[in-house]
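Form 7-S
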Amino acid sequence: MGNWKKAGLICAGFVGGAAVSLAVTVFADKDVRTGLPIEDLRTFAEVFNAIKQGYVEPVDDKTLISNAISGMVSNLDPHSAYLDADAFKELQVGTQGEFGGLGIEVGMEDGLVKVVSPIEDTPAYRAGIKSGDLIYKLDDTLVKGLTLSDAVKRMRGKPKTPIKLGILRKGESKPLELTLLREVIKVQSVKSKLVEPGFGYLRITSFQENTVASLAKHIGDLYKQGPLKGIVLDLRNDPGGLLNGAVGVSAAFLPPKTLVTSTDGRTEDAKHKFFTTPEDYLRSTGEDPLRGLPEEVRKTPMVVLVNGGSASASEIVAGALQDHKRAVILGTQTFGKGSVQTVMPLPGNTAIKLTTARYYTPSGRSIQAKGIVPDIVVEDPAAGDTSQNLREANLERHLINDKDKDAPQAKEAPKAQNKAAPAKPKNEGDDAAEPPLRELASKNDYVLNQALNLLKGLQILQPRP
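Output:
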């Protein structure tokens, strides 16, 4: 396995008030180091000295160096970042499924904080914050000029303390102002429900350290209620998380020793294949939680639900089940985050999160800036027009898809077989009162109902206008 296996990988983007997965450096002790650009370093030293001597206010060395590192890393791509001590600590805590904040996965665009996805059952989700929203103000502070790390710090805070967000939303004639109460967020990674006799529903909200064990328990609970004729795995708006979680979830539904994903980068450590074997999805030498799964779970007909908020680890699972023809993928085109981030600890309890490789599906397809195109495209009428939703290909400095270099932007998904009905007009403030998917496996969930129709052998219905 080498050092790469020992490291663990990150699937999720940088998160504001939300969980990110943790990896350990594997590149700090390389035997061969590249030569340093002496002339450029001299220029850096001169700029450093000029600021120290002539800037209007004194700036300490640590701040200057931290800012330099942050700028160097953050300008590589949307997912590489410098993590100061606070951000690094939050990242480590976040992988355990409990953290403080608002519950938003964010990135940066044009100097503003851009929402990738709100996390279910969090203050951001309940307030109606949407994917694609631009946060331009935090309380009385304008975001323009702040780094992403600085903005995230301001969104964090003690539970039950308020913060006012100024938001720009496409389609709104004027900015929105939402006041949220911070809270300790405990994300329940897996949820389940027997939606009908013989039909089980599994929802994964993010991929954390306990996701595989939790999934195994939920599967066992469903089968205890009787044999299943079909399974729906819901990965909509799941922003990703730990790679081993994605491999373990895939292993629950695929035969042993089946290829789930591969990674490829510039170093030998970055080239690896991950299979449905315990050594590829367990982070410790403990008992395999999938060992006691019912054998039928790997044969029961299955549909996987995805949308534009399904990213990273979610796309790995969907791509693996699609390539091996284990499940029908239903929904809309996924986000397209197919890059690997490795966290490399630095002195002073800081770290850098560096993009080190790309992900590929078992058949060799690159996920990057392209995502997973569903086998059956079904749009959610309640979501309205999703054609302009934020995707990896819309982010500045995103990596190109190396399997499709002539078309670095995400290709358009096939036309939907059922044109979604126009969303009903809403009054200002309605969005905050009615966030989507509040009820687990709701009877009003149009896309879920079409998945159940498919499992029953029924025709997928056109929504009523």
